[in-house]
Design brief:
- The protein folds into 2 domains: about 1-250, no CATH class; about 270-499, no CATH class.
- The protein is built from 21 helices and 2 strands.
- Strand 1 and strand 2 (about 75) form a beta hairpin.
- By secondary structure, the chain is mainly alpha-helical.
- The protein is globular, with a radius of gyration of 22 Å.
- It has a two-stranded antiparallel sheet with strand order 1-2.
Length: about 500
């Protein structure tokens, strides 16, 4: 490869390169200059350097208008991947802001470096259409998140959560690798588009069905759908709050993005049909069953939770079920609806975890009763939490309503008949109504219930409050003007060549 090609490669991976330099810089600054400073100063400086890395990567994305596909799809840069990367960087910036006032670890440089490394893995994940590169990116993201989950060394819950997350993640990696090996054996290729060409017109025989099942199983762990969800409640409960926010937001956006690409591009001839009483073998019936189970178990289990962290975990499982409808539609509109849904959900999830962080700082826990009186004690925080909860429930005119609306519309227009997936959409709407109950339980504690203890005097969390209010404003804006995101994703998906 010539030097010109290397220069082009460097330009295409400039955002990831800037993030890597940011990770090295935050380690160097903390180790060389900030070791004798107070914890708050180290946190602020680490967040500042890490934030600069994210903003530098965003500037590189905005300045780059070049599109390319290199090394058989290992690196794909187009408007769609640029939008996904920009979303991941914004989510990471909010995660960093939420981390500034946390005190769970003295290893400040390492913490922020791992956040940036996890984001680099997510960025490469959405930039690849090659199975081996997808696997390597998944592992970079996962290994960083495992360590971040265990970062609260004084908490036994954090260690337990990280161990479960690691064990389930290792199992998921084994399933993914086995699926990839079968796909390579059947097609002789690892690039998604080459796989689609090699398998075009072939029957769904036993080896191909096994490859599909293994691949969906591996990704099912990453997106935490039933029955591959068992790690999620413990990870959300025990991880440091910013880590839980990153797992619930950026990790899910990237995982859904790549799962949709793998199925809609690589396995484009094996979708089958999930229409009511018209099941045809393929990945669509598998996803339909997973979506159905996730919506039922996620929503029903959330009702029984007394911890808001675990409530958000089971809520995330239910939302994974809703989001699968975007992939099931198997269309460009479905993909753009999926991305709008996941980005707005991710913003809402980070905001909700930010409120949880404030309550834990004041009350020492995240039980429902700990939220009592929050609306009177901190009206802006209480109002923001109301926006997040109602958006998750799908109440208009918030972003969560339009996310579900677009995904449901895309699903209804697909299948063996015009209403092929209508049965699943009806279930999703019914389960959304169920979810309103437990979201209102949180709001009841915030605005109606009396405080069970005297309010504690704690330091003012300015950065966290700013992040929470900013996220609430974004959720409202993207709900009142959804076309700000949807139009961009529609145009980007059309250039990506899905169908």
């Amino acid at each position: 490869m010539s030097s010109v090609d290397y220069f082009q490669l460097l330009k295409l991976v400039a955002p990831e390169a800037v993030m890597a330099l940011g990770a090295l810089a935050v380690l160097a600054v903390d180790l060389l200059f900030m070791r004798c400073s107070s914890h708050h100063q180290r946190q602020t400086m680490g967040a500042f350097v890490a934030g600069l890395g994210c903003l530098g990567a965003l500037l590189c994305l905005l300045q780059s208008g070049e599109s390319a596909s290199l090394f058989g799809g290992m690196l794909v840069v187009d408007p769609l991947t640029r939008m996904a990367k920009a979303a991941l960087l914004i989510l990471t910036v909010f995660t960093i802001i939420l981390s500034i006032e946390r005190t769970f670890s003295d290893h400040v440089g390492e913490y922020y470096a791992l956040i940036l490394l996890a984001t680099i893995g997510m960025m490469f994940l959405v930039s690849s259409e090659e199975l081996l590169m997808i696997f390597v990116s998944l592992e970079l993201t996962s290994l960083s998140l495992y360590i971040l989950t265990a970062f609260h060394k004084r908490s036994a819950q954090s260690a337990e959560a990280a161990l479960k997350y690691f064990l389930f993640g290792g199992m998921a990696a084994a399933f993914t690798l086995f699926g990839i090996s079968l796909v390579y054996g059947l097609s002789g290729a690892t690039g998604l588009r080459e796989i689609a060409v090699a398998l075009e017109g072939k029957e769904l025989d036993a080896p191909m069905a096994l490859a599909l099942v293994m691949t969906v199983t591996g990704f099912g762990f990453k997106i935490a759908v039933v029955p591959f969800h068992l790690w999620a409640p413990d990870a959300y409960q025990g991880a440091p709050t910013p880590t839980a926010a990153l797992v619930a937001s950026g990790s899910k956006v990237a995982s859904f993005f790549v799962l949709a690409k793998v199925l809609m591009i690589g396995f484009s001839g094996f979708e089958g049909d999930a229409g009511w009483r018209h099941f045809v073998s393929g990945w669509a019936p598998i996803l339909a069953v997973l979506a159905l189970l996730s919506m039922f178990l996620g929503n029903l289990a959330a009702i029984a939770q007394s911890s808001v962290r675990r409530l958000l975990a089971y809520s995330a499982i239910a939302h994974s079920g809703y989001a699968l409808l975007g992939i099931l539609s198997n269309s460009e509109r479905g993909f753009s609806s999926l991305m709008y849904y996941m980005v707005t959900y991710a913003l809402t999830a980070i905001g909700a975890f930010g409120v949880v962080a404030i309550v834990e700082e004041r009350k020492g826990g995240s039980r429902l009763s700990d939220f009592a009186g929050l609306g009177r004690e901190s009206p802006l925080v209480g109002l923001s939490m109301m926006i997040f909860m109602l958006s998750l429930a799908g109440i208009p005119p918030l972003a969560g309503f339009f996310g579900k609306f677009y995904v449901f519309v895309a699903a209804v227009g697909s299948g063996s008949e015009n209403s092929g997936l209508l049965w699943l959409v009806i279930v999703a709407i019914a389960m959304s109504a169920v979810s309103l109950y437990y979201y209102l339980q949180v709001l009841k504690q915030i605005f109606v219930a009396d405080e069970t203890s005297e309010p504690s005097v704690v330091r003012e969390e300015s950065f966290t409050n700013i992040a929470i209010c900013g996220l609430a404003v974004l959720v409202v804006i993207l709900g009142c003007a959804p076309n700000l995101l949807v139009a961009g994703f529609d145009a980007a998906v059309r250039t990506a060549g899905f169908k």
